[in-house]
């Protein structure tokens, strides 16, 4: 899918239309696999990124061109995948999927809302590669005691950078906002039974009832988050780093500190684990409860370290830099005059040269009421500068 999106976006540029053919080939591979979440991800992200792409001349590519190109790519992909799609379409009524899944089966493995916190806190529910409740306590939460996606962890730094990239005021604002909206929509679909929108779509449209395991739609949100994190990093590393970005990083670091403090207190940690992972109080009171609390504390400490490091880096980048004013320029000129000339004694600067430097530094500050500089100060500044240059030439100081 990433290769197909790259080829599609490059194919929107003039002289590179031939790249739409490889993009159609990648889309055909997705269709042959009969993976609805991946096909939806390709179509949605291609539409969002293509309709908001910037043209070579600096303007935005017309959304109509992107939509027409996407329709052509999907049509060619369907034609290439027809050898698989047509026989599968004929055999579909003979399978359970043809009549549509029941609500229990179709909404199985929906993304729990509490798992959204796992995007920042690693191993929030333990290690799914072990079956022991002391190591994997997420079995109390997930369907069948096991998740479809083994991990939903992205990291505190990418999540904060994605938030900065989505909401900062800069270039490609429309693309970033629409991409954030697409990621949010994908998360709503991934919630499955926990989302009113997905439940309504499941009841209203029969093609939706042929799709199960809504948690797979979270991959669209992860892809959008990665792109937005790149925009956020570019913003923080730019020449003008926003103080708002540093403030957002500091707020997230403070929230992670509070979560770590809660995890360090046993009574509060037990309540939080019971609310997030539905861990029974009896289990937390046993010998395995101590191991669960220790692992939970380690995870929150890691998230706090990530958020704190990003907050410090963003604060350093947003700190105002000192810019020398008129006094700094005068000090630089004074240092030039105090340089010793070989073979000569250091000379004192006469009053005329000092006045010349003052006029040069302050000549731009004399302005009329309408903001335009007056001609007299500029002429005086020019004459004073010439006198100062002559003085430096006599002293042997390079200009």
Short description:
Helix content is about 65%, strand content about 0%. With about 400 residues, the protein is mostly helical. The protein folds into three domains: about 1-95; about 100-320, no CATH class; about 325-395, no CATH class.
Number of domains: 3
Q: Which class best fits the helix and strand makeup?
A: mainly alpha
Distance between the termini: 61 Å
Biggest β-sheet: count, sense, barrel? Answer: none
Percent helix: 55-70%
By DSSP, the count of extended strands is 0
Overall 3D shape? flat
- The percentage of residues in β strands lies in under 5%
Provide a count of the helices.
19
Low-confidence stretches: 326-353, 358-371
Write the layout of secondary structure elements.
Elements: H1 2-11, H2 20-32, H3 36-51, H4 63-80, H5 82-91, H6 96-99, H7 103-106, H8 156-167, H9 173-190, H10 196-204, H11 206-209, H12 218-236, H13 243-264, H14 266-276, H15 281-284, H16 287-318, H17 326-337, H18 351-362, H19 375-395
Helix pairs in contact: 1-2, 1-3, 2-4, 3-4, 3-9, 8-12, 9-12, 13-16, 17-18, 18-19
Using brief descriptors, characterize the structure shown.
399 residues; mainly alpha; 19 helices; flat
Question: Please, could you describe this protein's structure?
Answer:
The protein has 399 residues and is mainly α. Helix content is 63%, strand content 0%. It contains 19 helices and no strands. α8 (156-167) packs across α12. The radius of gyration is 32 Å and the shape is flat. The model is unreliable at 326-353 and 358-371 (pLDDT under 50).
């Amino acid at each position: 899918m990433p290769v197909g999106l790259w080829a599609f976006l490059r194919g929107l540029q003039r002289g590179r239309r031939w790249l739409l053919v490889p993009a159609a080939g990648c889309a055909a591979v997705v269709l042959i696999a009969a993976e609805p979440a991946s096909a939806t991800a390709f179509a949605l992200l291609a539409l969002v990124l293509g309709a908001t792409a910037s043209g070579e001349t600096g303007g935005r590519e017309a959304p109509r061109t992107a939509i027409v190109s996407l329709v052509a790519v999907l049509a060619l992909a369907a034609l290439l995948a027809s050898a698989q799609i047509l026989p599968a379409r004929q055999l579909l009524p003979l399978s359970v999927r043809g009549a549509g899944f029941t609500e229990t089966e179709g909404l199985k493995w929906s993304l729990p809302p509490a798992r959204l916190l796992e995007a920042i806190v690693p191993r929030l529910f333990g290690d799914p590669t072990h079956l022991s409740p002391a190591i994997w306590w997420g079995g109390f939460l997930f369907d069948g005691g096991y998740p479809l996606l083994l991990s939903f962890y992205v990291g505190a730094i990418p999540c904060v950078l994605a938030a900065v990239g989505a909401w900062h005021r800069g270039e490609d604002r429309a693309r970033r906002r629409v991409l954030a909206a697409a990621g949010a929509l994908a998360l709503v679909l991934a919630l499955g039974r926990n989302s009113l929108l997905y439940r309504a779509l499941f009841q209203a449209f029969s093609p939706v009832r042929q799709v199960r395991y809504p948690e797979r739609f979270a991959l669209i949100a992860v892809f959008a988050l990665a792109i937005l994190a790149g925009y956020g990093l570019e913003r923080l590393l730019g020449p003008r780093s926003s103080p708002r970005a540093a403030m957002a990083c500091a707020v997230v670091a403070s929230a992670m500190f509070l979560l770590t403090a809660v995890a360090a207190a046993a009574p509060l940690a037990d309540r939080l684990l019971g609310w997030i992972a539905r861990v029974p109080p009896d289990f937390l009171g046993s010998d395995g409860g101590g191991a669960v609390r220790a692992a939970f504390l380690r995870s929150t400490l890691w998230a706090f370290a990530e958020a704190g490091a990003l907050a410090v880096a963003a604060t350093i980048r947003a700190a105002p830099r000192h810019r020398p004013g008129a006094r700094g320029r005068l000090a630089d000129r004074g240092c030039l005059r105090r340089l010793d000339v070989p073979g000569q004694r250091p000379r004192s600067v006469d009053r005329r040269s000092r006045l010349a430097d003052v006029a040069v530094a302050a000549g731009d500050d004399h302005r009329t009421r309408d903001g335009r500089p007056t001609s007299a100060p500029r002429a005086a500044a020019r004459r004073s500068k010439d006198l100062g240059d002559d003085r430096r030439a006599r002293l042997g100081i390079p200009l």
